[in-house]
């Protein structure tokens, strides 16, 4: 009986939370690739505040780099395109 009460409690709590699904395609930075397994492999991770992505990508020399991508979009001067800035944590270079 206690087990059934706990199950009902946890199931009732699931219905109270708001769930939002977002699908997006994030290509790897120029001259890099995502690695699905092995050293340097890992998922794209969203920060707790939802404003930043981090991920690793492998360059043509097989160096694994950590990339940080701000989700603070900027619009092109004509307002037709959105750009985000990706910063290479190792070199500090921006890629827009």
Short description:
The protein has 96 residues and is α+β, with helices and mostly antiparallel strands. The protein has one helix spanning 2-14, and strands spanning 32-33, 45-46, 52-59, 64-70, 74-75, 82-83, 86-88, 94-95.
Give structural notes:
By secondary structure, the protein is an alpha+beta fold. The chain has one domain (26-95). The protein is built from 1 helix and 8 strands. It has one helix at 2-14; strands spanning 32-33, 45-46, 52-59, 64-70, 74-75, 82-83, 86-88, 94-95. The strands form 2 sheets. Strands 1, 2, 3, 4, 7 and 8 form a 6-stranded antiparallel beta sheet that branches. A two-stranded antiparallel ribbon has the order 5-6. The termini are far apart. The model has no long low-confidence stretch (mean pLDDT 76).
Please give a handful of descriptors for the protein shown.
single chain, 96 residues, alpha+beta, two-stranded antiparallel sheet, 14% helix, 29% strand
Q: How large is the radius of gyration?
A: 19 Å
Helix count, DSSP H or I runs of 4 or more residues:
1
Q: How many β-strand runs? A: 8
What would you call the shape?
flat
What's the average pLDDT?
76
Distance between the termini: 58 Å
State the secondary-structure class.
alpha+beta
Which strand-content bin applies to the residues? 25-35%
For the largest beta-sheet, the strand count, sense and barrel status come to:
6 strands, antiparallel
